[in-house]
Amino acid sequence: MRFSISAVVLFASLSSTLATPKHKRGAVKPRRTRSLLINPDAFPDLPTAQEASAVAADAGLNLDDIQGDVLIGMKKNRELFYFFTIANAADFKPKLSGSILPLITSTTQLLDVSTQPETALNIAFSQTGLTALNVTDSLGDSLFSGGQFKDLANLGDPSATQWVPEFAGTGIHGVLLFASDTDDHINTAVTNLESALGDSITKVYSLQAGARPGAEAGHEHFGFLDGISNPAVTGFTANPMAGQAVVAPGTILLSETGDATTRPSWAKDGTFLAFRQLKQLVPEFNAFLTANPIVDGNLTAEQGSDLLGARMVGRWKSGAPVDLSPLVDDPALGADPTRNNNFTFTHSGFTLSSDQTHCPFSAHIRKTRPRSDLGTPEDAAHHIMRAGIPYGPEVSDSEASSGTTSTERGLAFVAYQSSLANGFHFLQQIWANNANFVHAGTGADPIIGALAGAQRVVGGLDPTNSAKTTTLTTDFVVSRGGEYFFAPSLSAIASKLSV
């Protein structure tokens, strides 16, 4: 693990070149000596506070005013998602400004260990939550306005019967995101905030999540390193890695360069948060791989199973892309952020539109970021900032031996974008679920593709026979529902939402 975060610059000095939000900030709590974030070797390093301050100033971004989770990516250690309804708006508004706002962690604060709080806090509101606060301005996103429950069929979910009941409808007004390095710190922060908020809100549902233990930190429950290909954002990322997509800040943040939609002025530097609770059937997935190894005279049965899993994802568990290491894992490649994204699916002597010996057209990472499949330069319109985290326990011995899940586990999926239609919704409906993207007959994404519970016929998974199809009768990732939220800037909370 590496931490490049400076521990010497205080928050006050970081703000000198940036506009100061017009709201009162709480005093910085006792200084940390270790980061609350994880940083696996394969992930591009976050910028230091000084680096971020410099590039933000050049781009006109105010990192003191942007909630901390938005640009950080999949680096949380422990996290709690606390979903609530506003029981009494008149009582909640002063508590939002007086009790919640001083605790909200900005991007700048998270970039330096010395300014990180014991527990970071962010907040976001659904459309019904904004309505409860008497905020009637349109944010220019119909998917957000309608809520995720209305979008259920478009996302390929079979029905709401598999959803967590609290997500079925529009009853959730908001979500508080607590992040720290221990559950005890989070639990203390939750207790303290609940005491301060009193009866102004009602807890509806919560989900505890955390990085997997030891060397598995950064890996999702199927075992694959996750979050490697998050984009670099102009005005935040100081040194983009080779092959890392570089997007305008308006791809993620409202009313910044790259966001062409008309927004109310107060919504600037907010973002839409797509939350999904994605149950993963890990024992079933592993049993499928074991039963269907790719047969190659140079591979053992176990290696053939590992290869099938890698081709379904598009990466080996180490993070190494199959496009660069087609038959065997290369952990050194996977751990190197200067190389593990530096590919385009093009290869000398091979035709892009027919070559699946390197990476299947259906592979998860190719479905969700087609790179050269859609031409060059790469279209940056459909990038999101993923900030999810695993939830649930490790697979038990009895689950592994039976090949059957008995305790729920999965991914608390979080994606930030300035347009749900161009971001998460597009990636799920138009690319992952589309059997004819990027080529006719490709099949749905074998990992997240969802066809309302119907079986999926996927092509190209066997490198020895690209014409062979594989029929998946089980959705190894099952949606348990979610909601669309708006995460406002800190100044918007002070000037619009709490008055």
Give an overview of the whole structure:
The structure is a single chain. By secondary structure, this protein is α+β, with helices and mostly antiparallel strands. The chain has 15 helices and 13 strands. It folds into two domains: 11-278 and 483-497, no CATH class; 282-480, no CATH class. The strands form four sheets. Strands 7, 8, 9, 10 and 13 form a five-stranded antiparallel beta sheet that branches. Residues 1-22 have low confidence and may be disordered. Its cofactor is heme b. Residues 355-432 form the Dyp-type peroxidase C-terminal domain. Pfam families: DyP_N, Dyp_perox_C.
Short account of what is shown:
This protein is of the alpha+beta class and 499 residues long. 23% of the residues lie in helices and 16% in strands. Strands 7, 8, 9, 10 and 13 form a five-stranded antiparallel sheet that branches. A four-stranded antiparallel sheet has the order 2-3-1-4. Strands 5-6 form a two-stranded parallel ribbon.
**Fraction of helical residues:** 10-25%
Silhouette:
globular
Distance between the termini: 44 Å
Q: What's the average pLDDT?
A: 93
> Per DSSP, what share of the residues sits in E-state strands of 2 or more residues?
15-25%
Number of domains: 2
Number of strands: 13
Low-confidence stretches: 1-22
The major pleated sheet works out as:
5 strands, antiparallel
Give the quaternary arrangement of the chains. Answer: single chain
Structural class: alpha+beta
Calculate Rg over CA atoms: 22 Å
Counting H and I runs of at least 4 residues, what is the number of helices?
15
Spell out the helices and strands N to C. Answer: HHHEHHEHHEHEEEEHHHHEEHEHEEEH
